[in-house]
Amino acid sequence: MKYISLKKGKTPFEKAQLVLDELKKYEGQINHVAIEAPLIQFKAGFSSAQIISKLGYFNGVVSTLCFMLYNTVPILYNVATARSVTLRGVKFPTGSNRKQIVLDCIAKLYSEVDWPKKPKAKNPDGSPSNKDECYDMADSAIIALCHCIKLMNGEK
Fold first, then answer.
1. Distance CA 77, CA 63 (A)
2. Domains: count for the chain
3. pLDDT tens digit sequence for 126-152
């Protein structure tokens, strides 16, 4: 499992180039592409409309790059649906940190992954704190697992 840092890219085009450079490494090896669908509704207290718009735009760019490189149409999954398919039986109590629950579940499943840690930050128990990228990595794993489950069930 890998995270592509886009911090070096200042513009959306430079960020797209960073993604393209990474995706090219897997050309000829990819048969399926599953991507988290962009958010389509605004929720107060979460991402702003401007952020949602930028993420949707970049999601389209990445989807297009995958289509062009791998000659396969990306399948888009709503993250909430993917979580329900993948994490059957896992409860998300009202007010809970869903992203943390997902990360905890995926980190147990993929214990061999070296999850990026914040240099000096510690959790209340004294263990190193995960970088924010870990939440995106966990959601990516959820999307991939959801796609695998749907393929195994004969769904497209």
1. 12
2. 2
3. 888 889 999 999 999 999 999 999 999
